[in-house]
Amino acid sequence: MPTQLPLQLDIPEQYRFAHYHSGANREAVITLQRWAEGEGERYLYLWGEPGSGKTHLLQACCHTAHRHGRRVGYLPLSRFHRQDPALLEGLERVDLLCIDDVHVIAGDPDWELALFHCFNRLSDQGRRLLAAGRWPPARLPIRLTDLRTRLAWGLTLQLKPLDDADKLAALRLRARHLGLELSPQVARFLLTRHPRDLPSLWRLLEQLDRATLAAKRKLTIPFLKQFLEQRP
């Protein structure tokens, strides 16, 4: 697994580029792949609405960079923003750093300043940084102007929402990697009878995968209806 700072975090195997259906985001995904391989601009900023796949792509970058022999760091600020921002110290030792959920530290002066200094140390060492947030740098409610400027130094990429056809394709791709046979009819039924955000759909697919294995049955619409009716 990649070397991760400041804590050892296991990145699930499914978070790879091959497991992400890019749809209208093909160019952004190609740019991220090249960045993880050490090509293109050193600094990238990725933004998009919740459930668009930002976390998946940041962790896919970590997998790819690790395969190319680079030291990587992945820091989800949604998990660590209540801790001491001093945990950012030393991250310049990695070759490539992915910082997720930048928006959660907006308005916190200690975290904003710590992230600003972290960015400067990375820059001084010639490291590569990929940051991700819910909004583009200019719309982040960050009070430290210099930090907002740093985040916009490189290329800003937007993840566009998937349309229904792409969501169907993403569902079937996810199911295939789980080893779950998902027909187009069942996939469409899922989209019409269940919350349509992808994280919720991914969790449901994992539950269905376990349920079909336990019942030794294929995933059909009758099985799916029965499963949904029995859920608490």
Note the beta-strand portion.
Answer: 5-15%
**Mind telling me the CATH superfamily name of the largest domain?**
P-loop containing nucleotide triphosphate hydrolases
Instruction: Specify the biggest β-sheet.
Output: 5 strands, parallel
Low-confidence stretches: 1-9
Structural class comes to alpha/beta
- Reading off the top of the CATH hierarchy, the class of the largest domain is best stated as Alpha Beta
Q: Total domains, how many? A: 2
* Overall pLDDT level: 90
Helix residue percentage: 40-55%
Description:
The chain is an alpha/beta fold and 232 residues long. It has two domains: 17-158, P-loop containing nucleotide triphosphate hydrolases (Rossmann fold, 3-Layer(aba) Sandwich); 164-230, Orthogonal Bundle (Helicase, Ruva Protein, domain 3), CATH 1.10.8.60. 45% of the residues lie in helices and 11% in strands. Helix 1 packs parallel to helix 2. It starts with 25 loop residues before the first helix and ends with a helix.
